[in-house]
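Form 7-S
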Amino acid sequence: MVRILIVDDAEIMRIGLASLFSLETDLDVCGAAATGEQGVEVARQTHPDVVLMDIRMPGLDGVEATRRIVRELPRTQVVVLTGEPSQESKLAALEAGAAAYVVKDAVPATVLEAVRSAWNRAASGGLG
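Output:
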């Protein structure tokens, strides 16, 4: 079972993603957070396998939250999710340690594949 933390300032995204994951037998949402600060704290408490992280949030943004989670919880993989993709944000997220970068208008199968691929990467020892 892959334990997932959802971090997004939009409640509809948190609810929608949780609903999507609830349909999958191998995925379990272990927590949700509305800010980067909350995301880091919930990750510390729950030790998820994968964090699905919005990149643009007020306060601590997804790039810095990713950096902190990856540094503190090296077995946790972060998949960055963004509604406003750019080369700069993609590069920043990957440099911060994100395992993948997905746009919010992707089809659900793409999001599910990114989460599973990130988890498989960690499970096979491809940490970092």
